[in-house]
Fold these 3 entries.
Entry 1:
Amino acid sequence: MFALANPKRFMDATGWMLPWLALATLIYFAAGLLLGFTAPPDYQQGDTVRIMFIHVPAAWVAMMAYGLMALCSAIGLVNRHPLADVAAKTVAPLGALFTALALITGSLWGRPMWGTYWVWDARLTSFLILLLLYLGYIALWNAIEDETRAARVCAVLALVGVVNLPIIEFSVDWWNTLHQGESILRAGGPLIAGVFLWPLLLMAAGYTLLFFTLWIVRIRTEILERRARAILMREGA
Amino acid sequence: MNALFARDMRLATRAGGSALLALAFFAGVATLVPLGVGADLRLLARIAGGVLWVAAVLAALLSLDRLFQADYEDGSLDLVALAPGSLEAAAFAKIAAHWLTTGLPLTLLSPLLGLLFDLPERGYPALAVSLLLGTPAVSAIGAVGAALTLSIRRGGLILPLIVLPLLAPIVIFGAGAVLAALDGSANGALWLVAAFSMVAVLLSPFAAAACVRLHLGS
């Protein structure tokens, strides 16, 4: 994997990888949406259960994105490699987007289910805080002019904030909340019925592939931008 | 490190320093909320813990962005970094001085402000203890935020955006402890406040020193 850290090799490798990733994303989305819309309505929730197929994978990806951001930040701090810094920088807007998507779709699902658009239970609160962490990271990066210093400082911020991620994960166990408890990765096997589990997993795969596709596009763009800036600076000198 | 601590204490308690400012801000916010929320004493008693906790965090935030900035601007931060002692110890000294001049006075004033909210007697110990245990974490995490935003123009505006999400758990637990005392239930929130504070105070000098080095190094 570290062989890909060379920007030129990264660009070459992702150049041919990207169309296949995009295609795989489309296939998983199509399959997930097809199964999701043809699944029978839930006996309690009716047709609104289908929001789950859009809401839950967005939340999973949002949390995974923060973990990736923290990992890239750590690698950037320790190995001092610019590509790790670029990777961390580009995750943040994507992560913020998926977090906002999860919050909005969850809110839309909450209205018919719980009767309210918002409630201050542990999981929702932690997710809102996650969004604020992403926004703070982006704001801090944009406020520092020197790219390398911005990368290092934001790396420290990302690592300090990564404490929040386990708190989200276990918050449902620690407090009595209104939000759904852990029903997929639990000791006794998934609680959810197969006919709902499959569309959910397919959509999760689709969302993950979408995230990686968009992330690679952003990293490639950032590398090209930096090259362009370097060329402009050389010509100006 | 002792000299730095003593110097920071002196600077903060001086006339133009931040200690009285934080107290005044704390009192001001605690006075303003009942004006906005209405005079229903039962409601005020319920929200007292939360309001006083939020006011304490905001009051501490007031002086945090100057924590390292003032020394950075006049060059003494460079001297501290070059000095024989470790930068982590210096950061810890600054956090301690900040807490003693901001967090501790806020804690001491809080029962008086609890009177304004008609807090029942059983709420006062929880309020004071939760603030006493929790304000070190506010100073510590705020110091990390101050180190992160060092030397940024208008860094003081980004500081709350960065620090408030990180402080959210302690506000939840701190105010939750007061509420639990009011309801007569024991929910261990004070233990969580203490644990969070311990971890924050122990780890944040390292994070703050790392950030200061990053900003000084360039």
Note: Chain B touches chain A at residues 144, 148-149, 152-155, 158, 161-162, 164-166, 168-169, 172, 207, 210-211, 214-215, 218 (CB under 8 Å).
Entry 2:
Amino acid sequence: MPKDTGIGASTKRREDVRFLTGKGVYTDDLSLFGQAHAVMVRSTVAHGRIVSIDTSAVEAMPGVLAVFTGEDFKDVGGNPAGWLINSRDGTPMREPKRPVLAHGKVRHVGDAYAAVIAESYAQAKDAAQVLSDATEIEELPAIVDMKAAAADASNRVHDEIPDNICFDWGWIEDNRAAVDAAMKAAPHVVTLELTNNRLVPNAMEPRASIGEYFPGTGDYKLTTTSQNPHLTRLLICAFVMGIPENKLQVVAPDVGGGFGSKIYHYGEEALVLAAAKRLGRPVRWTAERTESFLSDAHGRDHVTKIELGCTKEGDILAIRTETYANVGAYLSNFSTATPTFLHGTLMAGPYKVPHVYVNVKTVFTNTAPVDAYRGAGRPEATYSIERVVDKMCRELGLDPFEVRRRNLLTPDQFPYTTPVGLVYDTGNYQATLDKAVELADVAGFEARRAESAKRGRLRGMGLSTWIEACGIAPSHLVGILGARVGLYDAATVRVNATGTISVMTGAHSHGQGHETVFPQIVAEKLGIPASSVEIVHGDTAKIPFGMGSYGSRSLAVAGSAMDRAIDKIIAKGKKIAAHMLEAAEGDITFADGKFSVAGTDKAKTFGEIAFSAYVPHNYPLETLEPGLEETAFYDPANFTYPAGAYICEVEVDEGTGKVDVVAFTCADDFGNVMNPMIVEGQVHGGVGQGIGQAVLESTSYDENGQLLTGSYMDYAMPRADDVPFYTVDHSCSTPCTHNPLGVKGCGEAGAIGSPPAVVNAVIDALQRGGHSHVTHIDMPVSPNRVWQAMNA
Amino acid sequence: MTKVTMTVNGKSVSAEAEGRTLLVSYLREGLGLTGTHVGCDTSQCGACVVHVDGKAVKSCTVFAMDVAGSEVRTIEGMANADGSLGVVQQAFQDHHGLQCGFCTPGMVMTTAALLANNPKPSEAEVRHELEGNICRCTGYHNIVKAVLAASGQDAGAMAAE
């Protein structure tokens, strides 16, 4: 019988009941007395100088309460980048101010330069349209193409940045000459130029924010769609508005997906707070989906040239890349970390490659800001590596499975220091590869291919062996790498007098199931029912601190903090038990919910100890404080390194170029698994997004910087009939060596490992189908692109 | 503003609406039934699906006034009389067919309508019928399983895991 509770059980999710009955409470579901509605006025041009905004045109319109423009925020701070990256020459990155509302210039279609507040949403919307018409913007040539932007000093996204370059980063710069020499000496060099397509995250809940101001106390409250309310509070207070941190409460209630896009602080959050103060009323704003497309931080958007030096037998000797990474018009909070320390540090992959050098040039353009999206830098690294390794196999006539086996690190090599600055703690990459080969029935592929061929379809199989660095992140290390924050997390475990437990965690659940999984761990460790544990998250007034959920960090970092706090509870419980049982503290053991005197039948239950802590009649008050509540902050010693092997099978319609993903197999090593059902769900979701990136999703700006894919009519989201059932396995587990739960994180894996497997499969199908000239197709592998490639 | 009356989840209700008020706004803002969600502005995502006179309808595409007098059912009306989860809802929980929960009400309403029309759908039929409902979290694997399970079929065997 599988367990139905505790660590390792596929406990059904308790949060589901409210979501399934319409009782979830998302930001836009809240309705506050006296609330007013904000609508943003957004630029319809990609680049322009604001000549005039005639606010008098709307001030007398029905219901209009206030109008804000960039002028209102020109004296407050900007929304900063969280990582300082230095260029190869040692100069710091260029950091243009990102204002609450655009001032002077607009820099992308959708750049908000004004906001209208009105009694009703409809009135605000009407007035916003009138204000848009009453605004004069002198249109400037749009800067859309990254390489052109970097080459043309005459046209600037930010007037003070002459070449539109944010930074030109080398990793590791000191190793460059050695890598160049190794590449020169390599018997064979494979070169591949590829694009990692820009994606729109598209959490199904659009962003929304409600600002409140309480004049009696001077307190503010922001309810917002955030993956990390404390970080949002920090950014608003310390950088943008100068509100003392103890005067702003940030609440992120139920949040409908994030995938990175809700990590960041956005101008609308500051706007509703400022408007609430000015009007003395709650002010709410909810994005329309089109606004999400125009103004949410996008993902990916790299153009990379990768070279791989190898022996004729397929031993990888050196990897060298040059990447242009689009940061869009402004630096979003993680935008400078994503193409650098979340990307360059992964460029050795799971392989024993001795020489790696990465160059990344980040470029400003008149497009929406680009930042971390599920995987964040690691999908870009994995895609580059796994595509070029696949190309190497084809050029040398080698088997892609055997080449991986030849190059993968072996279990005896851990801990392994890569040439790009990471120390992989543990893994068994051969095991996951073998498992994937077994589950995908690689041996039966030829028969399936023949069957497809009978139906006139070209079948191909693609492999990717991936690794990522997550559980973000050790503060000391990321500090060296340029982070301006620490990336620990915190938890408070509060044992109530009646024995129920509240866990205040810095992680934030927006689909991950923390309300179910975290209690499983508490229950296991304390020997109590999970039903007596409640998780409190998403409220800066209730939880001690936290850096939120992204980078597959919830369990690895926040879960570890919770684990530490539980240990403190047990330690205090032992002191209380020693007193009550008249024994030495060292003789007290704790197991199955009982504090016992070792070797005797004397014991107190957890509930009795909790009660005694709050009703301390028989209690060591002279040496021990009453109460049973402990807080722990946990700073990880290292990143965690989940890894795995993914195998994709596709069928290609030779007549139309349409690609169907017909089978997808994942063998992952996530370390210890707390709830297999949820872990598998995370992989499914990541793979779905990865297939979306590989086959469907394209974010297109035209030469004028107009977003051509600004709605679900134009942007191809994966739908139920675009994907197959997936086969997923996580049995090849090597527990993380440095966190107490032995967990590695599973949230991003699917989105990291899957795109190259899909594209490798498409190339395989075409090659086997006689289109041997096709060695690469950029994502998404749309029917048009595949057909053009076949018929080139 | 006009008072618009209809039957929602078996109860006669009325609320003020403008001519341009969409059914979804009427439900959410007029009646406080916030389980029906708005995920897009082009009638693509399906988070707003409700039943109008037994048919699955995207409530962002219908004016409230146009369905005055109709029988409307929303996610709030899908549980059993005793408050326990209905068959479709239970299947979604059993098979982890939801993560963030935002698309879920629309998925449940679409599924219920689908199964009313086609009690034993094939996997391909389920996937086809769910085309109008976008989920960003689940990769659809467990949603399709949940729908098959709700139809009484062996979802695990059909998913061939």
Note: The mean pLDDT of chain A is 97.
Entry 3:
Amino acid sequence: MNIRSTFLRLITTALTLAVALTAIPRSDAEQPHAYVMQMTDNWLIEGDLPEQAMLMSLQGLANRNGPTLYLEYGPKWPWQITKPLRGFYEDTHGYQFTKLETAQAALDALASSAKGYVVWDKEVRTSLIVAFTVSGLEDALVVSEDLIPLAEAAGLKMLVDLRNEFRGMPDHEIYQIAMDRYWERCSRDIVIWMGGHHGSRMEPGMADWGIYRKAFFTDLSHNPKHTEELALTNKIYREQNPQSYVMGWHSYKKDTEGQQVAMTSSYGLRMEGLNTLPNISFNSQIGFSEGFVFKNNHNVEPDEVVIPEDKVYIALIQTDGIGIGAWTKPGRGKLPYSWGMALSWVDFSPGVLEYFYAGAKPNDYFIGYSFPSYIYPKPVPDSAYPILQSETRRLMKALDLRVMDTMDYSEGNRHVGNTDLTKNVVDHIYNGYPDVIGFTNGYGSARTYDNRDGRAMISYDYYLGSRRPKAEAIADLEELMALNTKRPYFLLMHVRETSSIDTVAEILGGLEESAEVVPLDVFLKMAGQAQTYKTRYKQDDDPVVRNPL
Amino acid sequence: MKLRMNPLKKLLLAVALVGACLPLTHAESDFNGRWLFDPEMSTALDPWSTMAIAIDVQGDEVSITRKFGGDKRNASESMMLDMSLPSQVVEVEGWWDNRHIGAYIGGDKKQTVAAKWLDEGRTLQLNIDMILETAQGESPVRVLREMRLSRDGQTLRVLQLRSSRNLPIVRVFRKQ
């Protein structure tokens, strides 16, 4: 054997390989890749809904093979972060996205993730919700009749045909049939409430996630008037795993948010909205970028004592969902602002949380919630508190959160009834969260106040609605200052997500009496040192309105 | 000098006197009915989206019910007033005038109301003393509420000053 020629052959082979490797674009060789597709703002049954529902089912199925398909939503979609989030994935996670321009192109690329298709009936809106369940269980693309040729052209065969199956039936009959057929095979960890808009429109943003997780889909009622539907709703909740997820949203046609969340809370289940929350099947698979740790913009140390002056202090909070509204609007960073953080996203959308933390400005402060998901504390059975609070502590610690918000619409809302906490609930909260430096309560104004060992619980004194004229908002705040004559006065303000921070700044700039806007952790620390508010819990004779439709 | 009148003149005088009294009686009863909120002409009502006032005048007794509505949520405040009294205490269901702020009816839900007819019965004026409960406790508040009827009896303007608020509130209602 000629050693020299062998050596030369090895060198030549190595050089050839090196040349070959450099010929492949660097991105193809090293960057993770996914497809992206643009959704329209037309979600009508006779509009773009059928094709977009098909693409969502394709997304759920394709993403079972890894984060493969990402959907971007239009300017009218409630969650406004799909475009900037994709940019974030590109910049920090190195993702390279290939645009799919048509449904045909999407099927050409990804139809192999499906084993066939299920046909829903455009005459029966609820059949689409059932079709989502079928999709997850049977790996079926969701199509309306007019999309069958497209599915067939992609090599898919019909697995289930729901045309003419449900015509003339009320929803409770349709869902009874669906439960008889599919319930046993569905996940007990997640059920999807595909509610929200009704009638000729549906916005099934969570469809991909439910399909990905083989969830049962429904929009059954929580309204006591709908006894047949309510019986099925209760059956689902009873048979879910303890502390499992109810994801999506109630139907605006059938019941109210208060009715649904009061019921899920009474079962100790974890509500996660909204039905429009997009791309979870993708986002759940995107971890944190290398070296990332959550770091909140704390303004005080946990054991620090802050003594207030005799003046008005204002703190601003937005809790409607960090991905909707003011976060993406101009003005952020101008004022100290607190943002309610979705704790459970640590587990199913970690990369999204990183996006928010990475984009936070010094004045942005994140806060947690009294439970790991959207849960009203009053209906929660005492026995469910320990495990739910343990999970909350884990998530609060992971996200570097020290302030906790709570809300309870089980007996009222910001118009009528009460949104206050019983002493028993307040005891649970204080005892369950010894590391939290302070608590806030309400949504609209509420009147639960406490202070234990310098840890204040302050309810919202003001709700800034998005339609409130500036002059009236200024008069509202000045009226509160006139009614609360002692100083310091701690005025906690909840800002609706659709109100921009610029608008808030203009309102506060118009106040006659000097008021200082401070970060929430500073606000609560001071409130813990100067209790000018009266300790109050929900009283037995407080009005109760259970949010009827 | 003794005034002497023939029967026809007496009748005409009587008619004239009754006629002179009519506008007063007529205007007060013109308050009767249901009045619907006109958002275009009024101070913002949010968070409520609808409001109606039902008024029933029966002699000295005046019943006023203000109904607030919005997005499946409703509240009402009703009071029965005796106009022969200079002042009276009424109990109300709640204080719904501004549900954006943390202020609630206090003082056992009792209000002291001084009510009177003004402007030949075309204005019903209420001076209300009440207690609002806030984060820091109870706070006394004065309300001056004038309900003014238009000449044609089809529009009711409700003007309100609250001692705690720097802006007046003007709401216009149309007869249903």
Note: Chain A touches chain B at residues 256, 413-416, 444-447, 449, 458-465, 467-469, 471-472, 475-476, 478-480, 482-486, 489-490, 512, 532-534, 543, 545, 547-549 (CB under 8 Å).
